[in-house]
Specification:
By secondary structure, the protein is an alpha+beta fold. Helix content is about 45%, strand content about 15%. It has nine helices and five strands. Strands 2-1-3-4-5 form a five-stranded mixed beta sheet, sandwiched between helices. A hairpin with a 5-residue loop joins β1 and β2. α1 packs across α2, α5 runs antiparallel to α6 and α7 crosses α8. The protein is elongated, with a radius of gyration of 19 Å.
């Protein structure tokens, strides 16, 4: 209370969420063990129910609570994007995408659809793939943009490999999508690649 939540370590923050430990371990000890088991908070947040409940000290109730905390965070970031020009607040978009995609073990391609004032009207997963690639169909992306009456779109996908760098195929796909969406007057404003806590913006790299 005196120093603020941002002064706490990851283990201390997680311990406050856990509230209690298990026999022979304090909440902080259990939190450190969980972080050691999963690697970091991002991977813990992305863990499946089966992976979580297999760890002593985490059960269905804690898993449900953790998912509720994550969903509240996503919704708060989504509301922040809906209330303002996303180009004027790129940090909210980046944080939302990191929270949504950062810890996934499979590749996901998603779209964030914007109105004429660059406010978010909808975001959704468009395609899901394997660990190495996703089949993305420009026609389907165009259909979803028209369904949401979007004036712009921010593309995003994750790299489960942990390397937040764009490949030549990523850049080629972005060009194909930009050309297809331009035919229906939908502008591609950015394409983010997310890997864990890291991300790359095509717009910032000057690729759009």
């Amino acid at each position: 209370m005196s120093r603020g939540a941002d002064s706490l370590s990851d283990a201390e923050l997680l311990a406050i969420f856990l509230r209690v430990g298990v026999r022979g371990k304090s909440a902080v000890d259990l939190a450190r063990e969980l972080l050691g088991h999963f690697g970091n908070l991002t991977r813990l947040f992305a863990a499946s129910r089966d992976e979580c409940v297999a760890v002593h000290g985490l059960g269905d109730a804690k898993y449900a609570q953790l998912q509720a905390v994550l969903e509240m965070s996503r919704r708060a970031l989504s509301e922040a994007m809906q209330e303002r020009d996303t180009l004027a607040s790129p940090a909210a978009v980046r944080d939302f995408l990191r929270l949504r995609l950062g810890g996934l073990a499979h590749e996901v391609f998603m779209g964030v659809f914007l109105d004429a004032q660059n406010r978010v009207v909808h975001s959704e997963e468009l395609f899901r793939g394997t660990l190495t690639q996703t089949s993305v169909y420009p026609r389907e992306v165009v259909k979803r943009a028209l369904a949401h009456n979007a004036a712009g779109i921010i593309l995003a996908h994750n790299h489960p490999s942990g390397v937040a760098e764009a490949s030549q195929s990523d850049r080629w796909l972005t060009d194909q999508l930009r050309q297809a969406l331009a035919l229906v007057d939908v502008k591609v404003l950015d394409h983010f690649i997310v890997a864990g806590n890291h991300s790359v913006s095509f717009a910032e790299r000057g690729w759009l």
